[in-house]
Design brief:
Elements lengths: L9 E5 L2 H6 L1 H9 L10 H11 L5 E8 L2 E11 L5 E4 L11 E2 L5 H19 L3 E7 L5 H6 L5 E13 L3 H5 L4 H17 L2 E4 L5 H16 L11 H17 L2 E8 L2 E11 L2 E9 L1 H5 L4 H15 L4 E6 L3 H4 L4 E10 L5 H24 L6 H9 L4
Parallel strand pairs: 4-6, 11-12
Antiparallel strand pairs: 1-2, 2-3, 3-4, 3-5, 6-13, 7-12, 7-13, 8-9, 9-10, 10-11
Length: 386
Amino acid sequence: MTPLPKGSLSVTLCRDGREFAALGPEWDALHRRCPSATPFQSHAWLHSWWLSYGQDTNLRVVLVRRGGRLAGAAALLLAHRPMPVLMPMGGAISDFFDILVDEESGEAETGSVVDALARGLHRAARSSVVDLREVRPDALAQRLFTGWSGPRVRLTDSTCMELPAAPLATLAQEMSGSRAQRVRAKLRKVEALGVVCREVPVERVPATVGDLLRLHALQWSGRGGNPEHLRPRFAAHLTHAAGRMVRDGGATLTEFLLDGEVLAANLSLHAGPLTGCYLYGAHPLLRERKVDVATLLLREVSRQAAADGRRTLSLLRGSEQYKSYWQPVPVVNQRLLLSRPGLEPVLRLRAAQVATRDRAARTVKARFPAARDWHERFTALTGAGR
């Protein structure tokens, strides 16, 4: 790695939850100076997750400062099972991991901060394997991986589906004639029913998140779904995070009303050029009224993303059939495993365990189509691999 001029950068390790909470304002400023950052690297998301899921003994946040100003950060935690592993804060309910780097200082300075983060991570790892999940192909963490001085392994992770951030009617113009006609028919159905969409102000976020989770549970009743979405700790996290993110422009909470009743709610997250469709809930009555829920939600989220000048509308993790209908581009996240030289056997063991588990999950999905979401649900339930 590139040698750092002595004294130009300082690297520290935050292990105290109160210290991490106090980082909020400067963390947010760094997040804004890092155009490649996703919503899941915002302080609102991470600190809220920590309040619901974290343990003070496990916090490991690498911080890089230049002249006292926060220039880089990597939010991690230490897990001990089945082996000591440093992993991203945010766990199974976060779709992307990345490091934060002040990219406004130029390419050379960005490289220096990435190197400093790598050095801090190297020290923090000690006897642990570093397991960075859900890293986008263009993430800054890829540069950290490339310059790592010890053993490393790159694996594939979840597939995300992405669309241009354009109004749904515009996207339909790129589809084949028959498919575009069906999209227009679905849009006309929504308009004919008189579904009203409205963005929720910050003071109404707690009540609307409650409605969203209630509708989400109702739509999945008897059909599996992610059990974590039904737990109080998830509700507490989502309420706290959404409140801050809606206030700061990092999220939009939308409710959909029919005849004055809220029958659907959706939470989308924003950062830089990206809007992500994170979670929604929809009453079964909408399907009974022949409303295509995906069309209803995408119509509004795509309008919001285009109006805000975003470039990418991500449907986030999962390649479900309803997502493929819109002809999105698949983007495969990666899993980056790193260690000190003396821990290479442990790293190889971790990589082998991951590969075996992933092969088993693919076999289950291929042989039992009804279990296509088994691996995601199992991971969320047990924390396996996280």
